[in-house]
Amino acid sequence: xxxxxxxxxxxxxxxxxxxxxxxxxxxxxxxxxxxxxxxxxxxxxxxxxxxxxxxxxxxxxxxxxxxxxxxxxxxxxxxxxxxxxxxxxxxxxxxxxxxxxxxxxxxxxxxxxxxxxxxxxxxxxxxxxxxxxxxxxxxxxxxxxxxxxxxxxxxxxxxxxxxxxxxxxxxxxxxxxxxxxxxxxxxxxxxxxxxx
Length: 196
Prior knowledge:
With 196 residues, this protein is mainly alpha-helical. 75% of the residues lie in helices and 0% in strands. It holds the Pfam family TetR_N.
């Protein structure tokens, strides 16, 4: 039986993304080669060019995949918290702490920004801003936080968490830097709380 073209395309993309993700996560973007990805996936360079354009396009696809996984994990952290405020803090802190995970550290917080530029300009950035802004609006409506423009608050929180994560990822001592970053980030978030 002949498999549908759509299924074959998805399989080819998944093989290339998987091979690239392993390489980017272990040896890094600069030291990995397109020939390595295609050989591991059992495909040609032509398939890589066809589906992703080039190595940079493949990195973008890997980042999208990891970002979706990170988002699912963060949503669970938030959903499992007893209150919306605790969920908001836990989700933001968990994001910063993910910079300790080797694959995320290398791909999302070191190689990604080095190759693709400022993460606030990545395609997923607007979705993150909108999601955080919605949470800020809900927290304001429930009286948990001070009166702050939701978009401004979202952009500032995302900039702080992204900066903290990149600081951790590029540190000589990520574990120690994470402790400092998380402590400081918690203080910043607490500054949003409404007086009781």
